[in-house]
């Protein structure tokens, strides 16, 4: 049996209603009866639910249904639109959704192919119920363009990151370990108002800065080395993502030249990125000057990615991207050069695509290599 309905919630913010309507149109246009939304960030985007266990069914014709378990019975009534029928399930949420849709006579139901496990797909297909139809990133595509309220939340997350970085510049000292600075980063983010870090911070010294996704280690800092910080703040569900590279003492001419090259490439991208541009076109704005400077093979990742409810989301600013930039997208711009055995430099800012260019949200200093 399906779960029992619970008490109605107060009205949800208008944007969640509008967001579901946009998805509903897509479901109906595809000749489907409903979309199963199982990705946690997608569930939050369409319903407002902030818990960790929830499944949303967006129907071609209202009502929509939301399934969760008893742990969230009180929470869900305060977060969801009262037009969404909430069911508290004692069994698998997906099973309860299948039973309800079967009762409603649904024939073909879409599911997020990036979110459903193979095991869940098999269990559904081996049971009586609607046929499953895979769809790709329907909700993620909608999430790529941010509302004014979403941009303001990301702006607050950027301010927290900027304030945290300023504090971190004052605690760098000889002999400190990467792990110690990473732990201090987390503490300072909380002190500045973050709900938490947006991802596990990267702190890398010296030659380890050439590892783009280095995990903090027991490596101690020595004078004459670069220090790479890559971190972000989580504020009201939205994230920031910033990278700065500084030096503890003079790192030598080679790394100074690399820093100048990366900074010039990033500035070229920030000047040139515009609405209407493709992902590969944006990527080339930084890649071309780095290649001209002889660093092309040392810039192995893409220029940037979207940020929002997650730290990596659409669009993608890369050579292989099929995305096109439109106003309201929030993205990172982060060229980097990594020289194995020597060190690396990455400079990353968060920006909003506007009709007239970019609004840069992160404000920490970068116009020259900071030497402490």
Task: Give the SSE map.
Layout (H helix, E strand, L loop, with lengths): L3 E2 L8 H16 L4 E4 L2 H8 L7 E5 L5 E4 L4 H7 L5 E4 L4 H11 L4 E5 L5 H8 L5 E5 L2 H6 L4 H22 L8 H14 L4 E2 L4 E4 L19 E7 L1 E3 L2 E2 L2 E7 L4 H20 L6 H14 L11 E3 L6 E5 L12 E4 L2 E4 L3 E4 L2 E6 L2 E4 L12
Parallel strand pairs: 2-6, 4-5, 6-7
Antiparallel strand pairs: 1-5, 2-3, 3-4, 8-11, 9-10, 10-13, 11-12, 14-15, 16-19, 17-18, 19-20
Helix pairs in contact: 7-8, 9-10
For the record, give the distance between the C-alpha atoms at the N and C termini, rounded to a whole number.
65 Å
- For the largest beta sheet, what order do the strands appear in spatially? 1-5-4-3-2-6-7
Biggest sheet descriptor: 7 strands, mixed
Encode the helix/strand succession as letters: EHEHEEHEHEHEHHHEEEEEEHHEEEEEEE
Q: Which runs of at least 5 residues are low in confidence (pLDDT < 50)?
A: 1-13
Structural class: alpha+beta
How many individual helices? 10
Dominant shape:
elongated
Q: Bin the helical content.
A: 25-40%
Strand content: 15-25%
What integer is the average pLDDT?
Answer: 94
Radius of gyration: 23 Å
Tally of strands: 20
